[in-house]
């Protein structure tokens, strides 16, 4: 709870155009996602997705943290798919994980995480649609 409050305060000090705004958005999204995992408040998951999208918009191609934003947003979208069974969330999660993989070539320390979550998403799609 305190981490969320502090990240909200930091975000307030990093208005649009601030060079570290994407970091504040991303960190707050992570905390809200963690709170959703522990408490199950759907509003936390929804806000995490919204903030994750905003962070990704600021982390354009070439940004050193773009892959982590792609990965984390995809994870939240997969979680939301598991909650609401909306295929568009899962399809977007697959697309984002594939984009993250492009930024995590063979030998990258986080490549296995992206491969793992992508495989989970594809398995979810199979379970849902038989594809």
From TrEMBL:
<dbReference type="InterPro" id="IPR011990">
    <property type="entry name" value="TPR-like_helical_dom_sf"/>
</dbReference>
<protein>
    <recommendedName>
        <fullName>Kinesin light chain</fullName>
    </recommendedName>
</protein>
<dbReference type="Pfam" id="PF13374">
    <property type="entry name" value="TPR_10"/>
</dbReference>
């Amino acid at each position: 709870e305190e981490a969320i409050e502090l990240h909200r305060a930091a975000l307030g000090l990093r208005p649009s155009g601030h060079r570290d705004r994407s970091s504040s958005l991303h960190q707050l999204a992570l905390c809200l996602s963690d709170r959703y995992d522990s408490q199950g408040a759907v509003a936390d998951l929804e806000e995490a997705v919204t903030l994750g999208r905003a962070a990704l918009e600021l982390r354009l191609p070439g940004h050193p943290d773009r892959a982590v934003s792609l990965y984390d947003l995809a994870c939240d979208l997969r979680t939301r798919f598991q909650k609401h069974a909306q295929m568009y969330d899962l399809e977007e999660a697959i697309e984002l994980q594939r984009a993250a993989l492009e930024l995590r070539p063979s030998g990258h320390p986080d490549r296995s995480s992206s491969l793992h979550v992508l495989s989970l998403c594809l398995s979810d799609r199979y379970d849902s649609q038989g594809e």
